[in-house]
Amino acid sequence: MNIKGSPWKGSLLLLLVSNLLLCQNVAPLPVCPGGAARCQVTLRDLFDRAVVLSHYIHNLSSEMFSEFDKRYTHGRGFITRTINSCHTSSLPTPEDKEQAQQINQKDFLSLIVSILRSWNEPLYHLVTEVRGMQEAPEAILSKAVEIEEQTKRLLEGMELIVSQVHPETKENEIYPVWSGLPSLQMADEESRLSAYYNLLHCLRRDSHKIDNYLKLLKCRIIHNNNC
Amino acid sequence: MKENVVSATVFTLLLFLNTCLLNGQLPPGKPEIFKCRSPNKETFTCWWRPGTDGGLPTNYSLTYHREGETLMHECPDYITGGPNSCHFGKQYTSMWRTYIMMVNATNQMGSSFSDELYVDVTYIVQPDPPLELTVEVKQPEDRKPYLWMKWSPPTLIDLKTGWFTLLYEIRLKPEKAAEWETHFAGQQTEFKILSLHPGQKYLVQVRCKPDHGYWSAWSPATFIQIPSDFIMNDTTVWISVAVLSAVICLIIVWAVALKGYSMVTCIFPPVPGPKIKGFDAHLLEKGKSEELLSALGCQDFPPTSDYEDLLVEYLEVDDSEDQHLMSVHSKEHPSQGMKPTYLDPDTDSGRGSCDSPSLLSEKCEEPQANPSTFYDPEVIEKPENPETTHTWDPQCISMEGKIPYFHAGGSKCSTWPLIQHNPRSSYHNITDVCELAVGPADAPATLLDEAGKDALKSSQTIKSREEGKAAQQREVESFHSKTDQDTPWLLPQEKTPFGSAKPLDYVEIHKVNKDGALSLLPKQRENSGQPEKPRAPENSKEYAKVSEVMDNNILVLVPDPHAKNVACFEESAKEAPPSLEQNQAEKDLANFTATPSKCRIQLGGLDYLDPACFTHSFH
Prior knowledge:
The structure holds two protein chains of two kinds. Chain A is 68% helix and 0% strand. By secondary structure, chain A is an all-alpha fold. Chain A has a domain at 56-85 and 98-168 and 178-223: Growth Hormone, Chain: A (Up-down Bundle), CATH 1.20.1250. In chain A, helix 2 packs antiparallel against helix 8 (189-222), helix 4 runs antiparallel to helix 8 and helix 5 (120-132) packs antiparallel against helix 6 (138-165). The longest helix of chain A has 37 residues, at 37-73. The radius of gyration of chain A is 22 Å and the shape is globular. Chain B is α+β, with helices and mostly antiparallel strands. Among the domains of chain B are: 28-123, Immunoglobulin-like (Sandwich), CATH 2.60.40.10; 131-234, Sandwich (Immunoglobulin-like), CATH 2.60.40.10. Chain B contains 15 helices and 21 strands. In chain B, helix 4 (289-297) crosses helix 8, helix 6 packs across helix 9 and helix 8 (423-437) packs antiparallel against helix 9. The N and C termini of chain B lie far apart (206 Å). Chain A binds chain B through residues 55, 58-59, 62, 79-80, 82-84, 89, 93, 95-98, 100-101, 205, 208-209, 211-212, 215-220, 223, 225-227, and chain B through 41-42, 67-68, 90, 93-98, 100, 118, 120, 122, 158-163, 165, 211-212. Chain A: Keywords: Disulfide bond, Hormone, Lactation, Metal-binding, Secreted, Signal, Zinc. Chain A: One of its GO terms (molecular function) is hormone activity. Chain A: This is Prolactin. Chain A: It is found in: Secreted.
């Protein structure tokens, strides 16, 4: 059998092309079932990736807030109106290291996922509203778009981690609902700016929370509190 | 009286006021909280700046409340952080929650409050500098030496649980340099420096920062002395690399210089100019037009080396001059045979016509009806069974029809073509043919063209049959066979005879010896007494067929039984072609006892040998 014959060449080429086309739609590596040793490596990669994403999202949020404040609200005391303005404040999130170490792993992960889920809608509206603004600030808009996308990816990764670490977890779709959309669309500029300021303020805070929590969990789960 | 009381009271008050002013006691000025920092995200400290002093001891108190709470708290620790500071311990520190705090300054005269400060611990994180920076020079044996530095994270920072993440940065410089060399070290607590100046004293510092927060201050500088023998191998490597590159460049330059042209032609091959197949531009330059034309028109008749060994040389006799054999010997091909022909000089067309030996040789190869005896001792080496090739005849007839001018009834067949298997001669034949083709006469030109084409064709067929010396002989033999015992000998013409534009003439057979050898001589008009003016042959001519070839390359001719007119060959004064055959021809002539007169037939100036005479002589 002459492998270099023209009919074989054609079939090989066809096979190669079809494989390449199929490979584009291949899903990520499937999660290994159960707590096998091999799964730890995959979990490590998942956590590493999640930490990178959360770190990146907080950097973007911090920059976005700084730019907004510098441009629209600096020195005008808007921060006074941010007290108790975040929609995720009802979640029982740990506020120091001791509390974080006391919370159990499963709840911790659920908490993170709830926070992430609760931010899907606000981010979507943030992008929509900023895009619709007159003289939309490009720097802020681009960051908002990026944060929205990366948050979705982080949520997917977290759901993967949860399915690996706690496969028996029932899907809990409860999360705080954000209802600040009317505030973003208010006619009064002061009120509208205050709404945006609050939203960006809360985003900056919650992204930092998630980043910190994930780094805690990573050291706890992967490195056994020995980072 | 009342006025005295009032004035006294006013005086007293003013005095009191004056006394107070002289003492400088005022309510305190407004303090200001100017900085809050958390070194580990577990505690934090705030510092305030007191306002103007009222002259009296002032107490400061910091009060705060947190986001989501309404209860006011006071600073738990005023001491740890130093004067005018408030330190919040672990139990008082919360992340992701806004602290609203203010400082209250009070003294006897009054108190004043600072502005509220909104503080979130999340964004005030700044660690202490790293500790225990150690620097040393390491020089392993088989590797390059380097500067090795190591440090430890500041205290009170929890890295193990992941609560805190630290990133480091180091910088160093020679003692007297102005600029620092900074390197980011990430989360590692050690670093390696490779490029150093030997013999210098270096300063090294390190600092750190949280994943989201402020950089710490630089650690205290650590000094390190680089030893003088700190070898930098990089320079040695670079020097050797440079030398090697120079050598390679020299080699390349040398190679290019030597073979530059060939390389250039390899890369940029010369554009070929227009080339006509068979066209030699050099010939044009040299002025050898006959060769050029021959190449142009007769490219299908390439000469071959096979012909070089052929013995027969084409001899041409200039009819206009005296009738002495004017053998034109080309260097390449000594002619050995002589053909007895006589060409009318008046008719130029005759040169290009069938009468011309070359043309007729080609043409007459095919249509040879009239026998013509021809003797070429050298050409034929072996006898060959003649094939019956009566196919010649129809062609001959056709040829006859084509050339009515020159022959009365196929006179062409009566010519005596000499075969020259010299490649050059064959080439020249074509040349001659072509020359004739461009001759002055129109009618002969056309005929010549046809003749030339036929000649080409025949020569082509001859050539195409076989190659090599044997091929030549076989060709000659094939000529025999084709002629069917006719002996039309194809005579590739020499270039020179036609080049000189001399009238063609044929060589007479001088004599035939008992062995059948023919000695050919140019026709001598004086001897023959024939009028120079050629006359068209009266009737068809015939050729003597070669019956066999003898050992000495002697042709044995026999008369054509179908021949009507027997061409008789007349002996004539022999002019010696410088060859062996002449001697033999001499002998042959001497042996010839046949009646020349009888054998000789004058046909339009062409003398033929009567085969009957031969038979007489032979037998």
